[in-house]
Amino acid sequence: MLNAPVIIAVSLLYLALLFAVAWWGDRRADQGRSIISSPTIYALSMAVYCTTWTFYGSVGRAAVSGVGFLPVYLGPTLVMALGWFLLLKMIRTAKANRITSIADFISSRYGKSHLLGGLVTVIAVVGIVPYIAWQLKAVSSSISLLLSYPEIVMPQRSTTLPVSADISFYIALILAAFTILFGTRHLDATERHEGMVAAIALESGVKLLAFLAVGLFVTYGFYDGFADIFERVAADDKLRQLTTAIPSGQGYTGWFSLALLSGMAVLFLPRQFQIAVVENVNEIHLKRAAWLFPLYLLLINIFVLPIALGGLLHFAGQGVDADTFVLTLPMAQRQEGLALLVFIGGLSAATSMVIVETIALSTMVCNDLVMPILLHIRGLALGESKDLSRLLLGIRRGAILVILLLGYLYFRLAGEAYALVSIGLISFSAVAQFAPVMIGGMYWRGGTRGGALAGLSAGFLVWGFTLLLPSFAKSGWLSDDFLTLGLWGVELLRPQQLFGLSGLDEISHCLFWSFFANIGAYVVVSLLRPPTAIEASQATLFVDALKHTRPVGAALWRGRAEVADLLSLVGRFLGPQRAESAFAAYARRRGSVAGEALEADAELVHFAESLLAGAIGSASARVMVASVAKEEPLSLSEVMNILDESSQLRRYSRELERKSGELEAATRELKAANVRLQELDHVKDDIMSSVTHELRTPLTSIRAFAELLNDDPMMPLVDRKRFFALMLFECERLTRLINQTLDLAKIESGNAEWLGSEVDLKLIIEQSLAATSQLFHEKGARIELDLPTEIPLIKADPDRLIQVLLNLLSNAVKFLPSQTGCVRLTLRVDAEGVEVSVADNGPGIRPEDQQIIFERFRQVGDSMTDKPAGTGLGLPISRRIVEHFGGRLWVESVLGEGATFYFFLPFVQAEVSLETAPA
Amino acid sequence: MTKKVLIADDEPNIVISLEYLLRREGFEVFVAADGEEALAKARAERPDLVLLDVMMPKMNGFDVCQALRADPEMAATRILMLTAKGRDTEVSKGLGLGADAYVTKPFSTKELVAQARQLLGL
Questions:
Q1: Contact B57 A703 (CB under 8 A)
Q2: Residue A358 sits in which domain range?
Q3: How many CB pairs lie under 8 A apart between chains A and B?
Q4: By Cβ atoms counted within 10 A, which residue in A543, A555, A618, B37 is the most buried?
């Protein structure tokens, strides 16, 4: 089954499927129903990070260094989990400035410099082309392995094979055609490659599926689970060291450099920038990608070690390259279907990388290398041709083809050489050179174009010298004299022990020296002179990207322009139709109806420039706009003024935000207070209604008796006396009621007068008993006292305490049975205060009434005969008095066994209650 | 024939004054100090008129009024509500429950007597 026609047919079918998905995705995007507007798709497409270098190479690395393959995935995991805000800032900045590539990003940040964009592009191309070659090699190796099935024959690279017979050449051509179809349908940067992203996400799924399948097969089909493999390995002296945490010879430095390097790669590799920044649909998606992408990396790494160890065990001594274990293990077991799936997985890994990387590179090459040169050479002649969008597309398509052919060429030349085998990390190291100018550019206003140029060049040169050239030498293309003797025989200039620095692995060594040179040159040269006007304004756009503010871009342009000129200029690069519809949309946003009514103000010029930037890069866009608009250059001080203004505006808006927040809070408080007031008003109404009711009752009796007496002068003396007595009684009740109502109102409003003195409770009790002795006597009741000999003084108002005690005692008397009544007054002292209780042997209080009696005008009595004569305010007042001195008043009672009222007064009162007492 | 009047109020002094007043007017007077007693006495004595206080323990005047009106045997009995709460809602509630008249406290004894006579058709 694994013969050439089948393999070719399956490959082509798979590519056709990808293309169908991409076509569908583009169609949906045109209809405005995006299929990639999902955080999961976004995270999956980010897994373009995992190329064949992961798919086949991880196992190869694990077979040599055990868990040494891991840092390459730890770095990205950490960056995504902890450094997502970097990505967020890049996304926000890129969207605001229509940035389409990392070269454009850097060039735009440092004053829209052509030179800088070109340099970044060169570094990227030099660093990435060998990496593309690796993908070609992996695909062609996997094909030739499959073709020799059922034998397992390591592919022999014969450079003697004519190009026309070399399968890799056709792979490169097919990929180029595919990439052109995918990536260069439109020109406008805002139109993302939705179809391509959908296809890439699918590919990520396929390669993960294939890898997990082979992992499960090796671990559980071939062997008996993880434990089985590790036991077998532990029994093998040579293999055992692979299972230690940090195998000897690697060291923590190596781990750290690898993690750092790959962390930077996941941010700054052109393909990662393309997917994570340019193709990002919605920055919210970053949230899920921050954990989903690391999870993907975890999944695709789970089976790396079992496959590597399983392969080493199985193929011991057979000379099978560990890089091929993923494919050769299923082949050795005659698992044709699985082998085919693995091949497709590898193809996915290769094609996704090649497509995205080539699109990203071709954009850079076109916008930052070819366009500037064309603009420079042909000057205005370029401006004369009507529609340049086809030319631009042509350049990009050409760039794609050239890049892939360069990849093929490198692959042909390098073969199995060291320079290709170890290219992954060499590539990463090249890309890492972008990190200082990128991160510095986003957080440091002081970085200048000169600094960026110096830093990038220095880092790139050191990288070439310490990593790329040695890799050429190790491949036998250069004499390796300079490796051992140093450049020009100077020993300090030995590329891998630069200035005598030894003891580091070559990657750490390169990272150290290249960053030393890169960051050093960047900072020092930047500090040599202050930023120019445009550098300062761009720095503000980038550094303040996350701050909410009106874009300052337009504010930094002053000059004159014609709408027609701008329209035709944009039309030349984007096509007239697209330009007109873009201008019309702009006009609608600005609220005007027809395109003619537009004013060629700074906003419009800025809009046109950003449209162009999407198509030809920010530096070229600036040059082109300058060719049709008469710009009056702003001086640095003017720029600084505008920036100051905008930062002042920002301050004002922050201030406003804060104030409006305060206002909202105040409104909320007012509303709550109003609700509370309404409640209180309601309560007051209820109280008023109760009070009038209570006042009307005695008044009714008094009026009735008075009228009866008045009507009948001949009334018998007995009745007359009785009625007068009742009238007097009701008058007293009325007086008491009015007094107590006012008293309670005063206490509650905090207007009551309080005396604060040291009170002797014994004295208070004596006075209270004296005042109520008549009541007790009338009822024939006894009173028992239980007082300690020593009673400490307590801080309170003596008159108020007497009021409380009188109330409790008279209440008790009221409910006592006639003649057998007994009241027991007890006083207890403890460490915190004094507790006084008044117990009676009356009828007791029902549990449901024990709270009610403390409410106003709520008396508890059964019938007319024992209707209490009080006002219904005594207990509420008493409770408030006790609470005023920090204590509490409560009742305990069992129905039929009397009631006991307690109050407790603390020695130390809470501060609050003292403060509320007016002097 | 002497008309029977039941006074239902929980304020002893008001009961005393009303009892004296109505006796003087020549009525036969019964008293009750709460709602339940009022209902029981009304059923037992079949008074021609009930002076019914609203705020009473055990059963308020409204409930007594409603119970009386639900009893067909008590259809002839006139009901005069007395209350210290003179709000319109209270008045209309009492009348809605079938009371024949409403007097707010404090009242004029003359007016009360006139009102009672009118209700009794005297």
A1: no
A2: 4-422
A3: 77
A4: A618
